[in-house]
Amino acid sequence: MRGIVGLAALATLLFAASCQPPERTAIIAPQILRVSNRNEPSDLDPAKATLPDEFAILRTILEGLLTPGPTGRPPLPGLATHFELSPDGLIYTFHLRTEATWSDGVPLGAPQLVAAYQRLLTPATAAPKANVFFPVKNARAFVSGDLHDFSAVGLRATGPHTLVVTLEKPTPRFPHYVASGPWLPVRTDLVARYGRNWTRAENFAGNGAFTLAEWRADQRIIVRKNPRWHGAQHVRLEEIHFMRFDSGDTEERAYRAGQIDATMSVPSSKVEVYARERPLELHRAPMIETRYLSFNTLRPPLDRTSVRRALALALDRQKLVEHVLRGGQPATGRLVPPALREPGELTALPPEHHYDPATARKLLAEAGYDPKKFPRLEICGWSASQVAILEAIQAMWRQELGLEITITIREAKVHLSTLAAGDYDIAFITAIPDVADAAELLGDYVTAAPENYPHWHHPSFDAQITAARQHPDRATRAGHLFTAERQLLEEAPLSPLYFNSKIWLMSPRLRGWEEDGLWSRNYHTVYFSENK
Amino acid sequence: MARGPVRASAIPTILTTLCRSASVNQKFHSPSLLRLATFIPMLRFITSRLLQSLLALFLVITATFFMIRFVPGGPFTAEKAVTPEILRNLEAHYGLDKPLWRQYLDYLGRLGHGDLGPSFKYPNRTVNEIIADKVPVSAELGLLSLGVALIIGITLGTFAAIRRNSWIDYLASTVGMTGISIPSFVVGPLLVLGLAIHAGWFNASGWYGPADRVLPCLVLGFAYAAPISRLTRGGLLEVLNQDFIRTARAKGASEFRVITRHALRGGLLPVVSFLGPAVAGILTGSFVIETIFQIPGIGREFVNSATNRDYTLVLGTVILYAVLIMALNLVVDILQAWLNPKVRLET
């Protein structure tokens, strides 16, 4: 018996020993920002990364010619102080900072940039985001392997600090392409020396406001202030810790326990509580991201415009965002988010996709459909969190049109591949352009584009997009894009629901935080203030 | 995994003959011959089980290789679809442009050299590196949790058995039922809420300092302490009624000695047979705990690799788990044979 008491005492002792004061993952020292990171970067290499949040980390340690501006505004100077555009809109001349160096002190010049871009475009590198170079002359041909001579590609260093980019055709929003992640420079000599290990902290050299100090896979990435960066005297943060979180709930608990200063999201069930109890910490920012319903135009009865429009008109989007999403996302009957519109462009909602159940019923009747004999369609999504919104849509179609629709949730990649294969009826999906350009977003719906999930074909729409892509004049271009969007909505191969917004929690002491609408931000302007 | 019948064809004939004579002819008098008689069936048993495991492993690899390929979507399926020329480059880069049978043979060839291939999701890491990085974390989590489970489980079970129908017994079965019926994704966040967010004793998540081990190991260990306590109690009760215990008591052995020296050895048999599946379960089933506490272990990688269609990482983790489960079951069978000579001869 005494032995057993002893055993129990030992167990208690062991437990007590394990309860020593915890070692906090990082001290809340001034100017060390601990921010949640929800996706482990596949690699810290612009030629390998694909996700916006991977590029958000990359931008702290690498600086492109231009950097993204706050939502809806033009890109800001980065490695290039300024650029000139030829009158025909085809040749961009970027002037690099003459004092620019890498974090290891090696001077940075235009030839290194060309070498980095050549590496990214080489077919053997297999860069998944090489497509943001496609406006550059012959870049696409080089990527596809049809062209082997890189000197024919429109990227040339004409001096140690001058980079000349020749375009395929005028692209008024080209600076936005240059500000995108894959255009970040890399040290090709390090790639050659270390191979795939060049992105390990001990081998890495960058040119950003911070430099890579530690990368513990699936735990944290630490970047430290780079004293060699041209704007270093204005950078107040000493370190940024990107802390890895798989789940939104774990992330929120870590925030409440004081382990991180900013989250990536807020679990939807907790948005209202935070709005009520800690409003200073709850933040919202509009994203360049449209959530919409894609109708499979290859399948009857969705091959008929009137049926698709009836379905689109029967949806009360305002109700969806107010009562189901409740995250402050703006409802929309348009595909192109405000941040992608040219200043002064018409923003009035075309009548096609607003809530008009009477017209919806009329359209369905005119198409010769009796709701009772209407084929049983299926609407699919890719996450259990979408069941609520899909059920609301299901209820609206039942109530307004008398249609019975079933709901299916598939795993994300299964969902995407059934959409690409055209093996679905109606799908909930999201549109995020690689670059802040409406032509990029609308271009996804031209015939046979990889993301033309409705499998829609409309020659006049294709012609508008082609015209927009070729026109150097901003106003004319915007006009073509506007017409194209209107045609798209009139024909309704898809129906927009709402613009997504980012909702996150942030310490009230943080200042200078600006979102760019594509999940990036400039950390060099961020700092902790003493006051709340 | 159930013990299969011994396949005589799978082992050298001479050994078989020896074994037969050893297990059938029980009239050995010399101690060394007796030791040989118990050793040879054991060897025969182990050899046969190893061969069966190899075959099973091959089947697991083959089935996984083809199954993961037939799942819709691939490693490069993304929200933002890649253009056809880029997809071609990616497929060529990873050898996915070759016919499937060719890829399968290439994979087996590389596997023969211990190379599990490059990861599709993490281009700067190989599957070998990822496994080498993550397994120690899961092993640490698993072993600590197992320690917690054994200490709580055996202590509670023993008390419950020797004080049957007392409050300790009821407490043990209440704790046991709670552990079995409340899932760790409820216990975990509750403990975090109380001990990390409100009391501030621990971090809510992470795997950095020693204190970060406490909450996850408690939660994972607690779930397994419940069945261990019930098995200990049941096993001990059965043994405590037997004659040799009465004899031990009659000879004046202290109660402590009776329990620890005589009763527990037999009473823990059911726990030992449970340990094999439990260790495998703790190591493979740590996915939930790893997610709740953001622990960089192999359990999360196992699940995420399937979601990412990281073909080589899926195969790598499946092979790892298959080998682990087979090895653990073998070890348990040997342990059982060692603890209970009856089992030995039944093979």
Describe what is shown at a glance.
The complex is a heterodimer of chains A (532) and B (347). By secondary structure, chain A is an alpha+beta fold.
Strand order, main sheet of chain A: write it out.
13-12-14-11-15
CATH fold node name of the domain at 132-299 in chain B: MetI-like fold
Question: What composes the largest sheet of chain A?
Answer: 5 strands, mixed
Gyration radius of chain B, in Å: 25 Å
User: Approximately what portion of the residues of chain A adopt beta-strand conformation?
Assistant: 15-25%
Number of strands of chain A: 17
The helix-and-strand class of chain B reads mainly alpha
What does the model show?
The complex is a heterodimer of chains A (532) and B (347). In chain A, helix 9 packs antiparallel against helix 11 and helix 15 packs antiparallel against helix 16. Chain A starts with a helix and ends with a strand. The radius of gyration of chain A is 26 Å and the shape is globular. Chain A has 16 helices and 17 strands. Helices cover 30% and strands 18% of the residues of chain A. Chain B has a domain of 168 residues: MetI-like (MetI-like fold). Chain B is 74% helix and 0% strand. The longest helix of chain B has 40 residues. Chain B is flat and about 85 Å long. The two termini of chain B are 15 Å apart. The relative contact order of chain B is 0.13. The N terminus of chain B is likely disordered. Chains A and B meet through helix 1, helix 4, helix 7 and helix 13 of A and helix 3, helix 5, helix 7, helix 10 and helix 13 of B.
Secondary structure layout:
The complex is a heterodimer of chains A (532) and B (347).
Chain A (H helix, E strand, L loop, with lengths): L1 H17 L13 E6 L14 H10 L4 E2 L8 E2 L2 E6 L5 E6 L13 H12 L17 H6 L10 E5 L2 E5 L7 H5 L9 H7 L15 E7 L3 E6 L13 E6 L3 H9 L14 H7 L4 E14 L9 H9 L3 H9 L31 H10 L10 E5 L5 H15 L3 E5 L2 H10 L4 E6 L6 H5 L16 H12 L3 H18 L2 E12 L4 E2 L15 E2 L4
Parallel strand pairs in A: 1-10, 12-13, 12-14
Antiparallel strand pairs in A: 2-3, 4-5, 5-7, 6-7, 8-9, 9-10, 11-14, 11-15, 16-17
Helix pairs in contact in A: 9-11, 15-16
Chain B lengths: L12 H12 L6 H40 L13 H10 L6 H13 L14 H36 L4 H15 L2 H15 L15 H27 L2 H8 L4 H13 L1 H16 L2 H6 L5 H11 L2 H29 L1 H6 L1
Helix pairs in contact in B: 1-2, 2-14, 5-6, 5-8, 5-11, 5-14, 6-8, 7-8, 8-10, 8-11, 9-10, 11-14, 13-14
